[in-house]
Amino acid sequence: MSKQILFVDDDPSLLSTMKRNLGCDYTVHTAEGAEMALKTVSQQGHFSVVIVDMQMPKINGVETIKLLREQMPDAVFVMLTGNQDVTTAINALNEGQVFRFLNKPCKTTEISAVIDAAQKQHNLLIAEKELLSGTFAGAIKLMTDVIEMQEHQPVDTGRMAASLEELASRMSIETGWEEKVAARVFTLGIAMLDTDQKRKFLSLDPTDDEHKRLFGWICKQSATLISRLPRMAWIVDTLKAVPAADRLETNADRQAKAATLLRIVFYWNFLTNRGLSVEATTSHITKLMPNLGTKLVQEIQCLNDNRDSHVVKSVHVSKLRPGMICQTDITLPGVGTVVKRGLPLTAAMVDNLVRCDGSDERKIQVIENSMVGVL
């Protein structure tokens, strides 16, 4: 993994020495002070290990680390201190701002040992993130795909996740794997509805009090079902906040923004799956969430998901591909409906259709814009 090291100090001679002594083993960049460090990060990208001097004019080491951490949350920070700074360094260490601290003056071998330990810590952080965003999120996707294949759901959580990512991008909101998983696990709560509850939830207007109550119950059930899984606390709290989320404030925290986006993309998917137009869907959402700003409403209307659902094309069963969205239900003789309209085809669905009815004569009505990039 990367061994990009950044040294931040106000002493240019020290920086030159560090670059000369450590340049053979690491890719070393230097910055004289916090402002130059921020500029270096914006130009060079993220660093795995950052070593910062505590005593610097204008902006000290602790404040510098706070600023850099905003841009590089996965970086591991080491602090250089003098004897008089030990208390400050220990406090920073205890608060989790820094991984280690080095007391000046220190030998090159000491610095190298700390850099190696910090690099190992960085690698662990990245590996954990990849495990959560890749393997774990992939397992959630597989589980929800299976649920959605067994029983048609009023929304497709894969489309929800894609819509959330697109809307967040349009609004310049950063998201992570947590938002994607939160969108996916909505299926779990919906699957817990009994027949009568599901009938009401599907038939009632979203502004109806009973529909709102059921939606809140769905979010709560989804949160409860995943609460026993590790590293799910943030997602659990976000799901619980979704029913009351009705605005997107600039200064809101990430969780509040995620809750609002989740509620929007749920109803975008829910209503377009019913066959409502973009305009009608947006109108329903603004009635349900009247405090959304004008810009957000405009961006909702620009979502690509299901925007061109009225444009369809006939495709032979043998030519179907994962990701295509069916305009009508797909039925098989003696079996009945195997794929509901509005659902993107999965690889398993396509294999099943080809195996059971792969004749060249049969054609399926597919939404044309869902074919882009899958043929």
Shape: elongated
Q: Which whole number gives the mean pLDDT?
A: 83
**In this structure, how is the largest beta sheet organized?**
5 strands, parallel
Secondary structural class = alpha/beta
Put simply, the count of helices is: 15
**Radius of gyration, in angstroms, nearest whole number:** 26 Å
Strand content: 5-15%
Strand order across the largest sheet: 2-1-3-4-5
Count of DSSP strands: 9
State the domain count. 3
Oligomer: single chain
H-E string: EHEHEHEHEHHHHHHHHHHEEEHE
Secondary structure: helix percent: 40-55%
Low-pLDDT parts are none
| Cα separation of the termini | 35 Å
Describe the structure.
The chain folds into three domains: 4-125, Rossmann fold, CATH 3.40.50; 151-307, no CATH class; 308-375, Molybdopterin biosynthesis moea protein, domain 2. It is elongated and about 80 Å long. The protein has 375 residues and is an alpha/beta fold. The protein has helices spanning 12-22, 34-44, 61-71, 86-94, 108-150, 157-170, 177-184, 186-191, 195-203, 209-226, 233-241, 254-273, 278-288, 294-301, 347-356; strands at residues 4-8, 27-31, 49-53, 76-81, 100-103, 312-316, 330-332, 336-339, 363-367. One of its GO terms (biological process) is phosphorelay signal transduction system. Residues 4-119 form the Response regulatory domain. InterPro entries: Bact_response_regulator, CheY-like_superfamily, Sig_transdc_resp-reg_receiver.
From the structure above, extract its key features.
two-stranded antiparallel sheet; 9 strands; 3 domains; Rossmann fold; Molybdopterin biosynthesis moea protein, domain 2; 375 residues; 15 helices; alpha/beta; 5-stranded parallel β-sheet
